[in-house]
Task: structure prediction
Amino acid sequence: MSIWWSLHLRRDAASVPLARRLLIGTMETAGVDPEISYDLSVALSEACANAVKHGGDLAPGASEAYRVTAYLDGETCRIEVADWGSGTVRTQDIRPACPDAEHGRGLCLIRELADHVHIGPKPGRGGTVVSFDKILKWTKDPSLLTA
Result:
């Protein structure tokens, strides 16, 4: 089974739960194990929160949007969150945050919850892409197959 979707969302805190709910609904319908769905939804929330907070600047022509794309293909789910901000973080730049820190833990959480993580510059106009994937586990009776 192969499912994918892509959203262009405003850089607004209200967009984060929207993306999360769409991912959870898609995974539930496809029959993905709830624990895997939860891990990916938390990782997605962190990536979206980073795009909302850091994904743009006040420069003329800066985008007030970011893009979320999810691919469920075979045994893997890949999620990409792309923004058009001026800063870029790379995978090798991620450093562990203090456990009691209020900020700076999102990328570390994504690394803990996903199987593979890549963070780098977005090709073209600038910005950052956070992509991560996880091997899927399935429930015995997925809604998509019984409809």
